[in-house]
Every structure is written in C-alpha cells, then in structure tokens.
Design a protein that fits this description.
It is globular, with a radius of gyration of 18 Å. It is an all-alpha fold. The longest helix has 32 residues. The chain has two domains: 62 residues; 60 residues, no CATH class. It contains five helices and no strands.
Length: 122
Amino acid sequence: MPADGGVDVARNARAIDWLRTELVRAVADVHRALTDGDDEALVAALAETMLVSALLARRSGLGLGRLETQLEAKIRANVVSAHELERWYGDMSALLAWLEARARQEGRTPPDGPATGRSRRG
C-alpha cells in the first residue's frame, strides 16, 4: 500500500471509470449478440455484465453479499408485484428457485421464503 493514500484513491477512481466503460461495452455486446442470434456470444456478454457489475460493486465499497441480498430482494419484489415477465413466463420465480437450489447445494441457507413471499417456517 502506498504511503500516500491519495494514490490509492486515484487508482480506485480510475478503476471505477474503467469498469463503467467495460459495463457499457458488455451491454453493447449483449445487444450485438441478440441481433446476430449468436448464443455463445450472448452467454459470454451476459457473463461479462455480471462479472463487471460485481467488480464495480466491490470497487465502489459495496460487499458482494450486499449485492446478492439486493438482487434477491428485487426478485422477490418482482414476484409479489407480478412483474410482466413473472406473469407471462414465471421468470422471477424460476430465478428465485435457481438461487435457492444453489444455496442449498452450497450448504447455505436459501433466501427466506418461497417465491410467493410467504415464510417457509410454521
């Protein structure tokens, strides 16, 4: 760690700017892959947006656990509010079920309550 804390602040600011640019590029790659109908490029671009988003959260001083908690909360809220993608396709419930299955597979406690928002307890 440099003796001058200002160097770290400047480096972090540059990293955040770079990550913001990378996020825009990754989203552009998503658009390009959708236009081209290229599944492999789409998966790679979507993975890149997830990676850059996580790194941007970390560089911004947000814990990855906090990001995951917010993601789960947004999914639940969209299930409860009957988001169009939830009503039409059940996408939010499917995503929540996937997250819960991963949590169980990893030996973690799954997010509270099933997709309906009701508690599992009792």
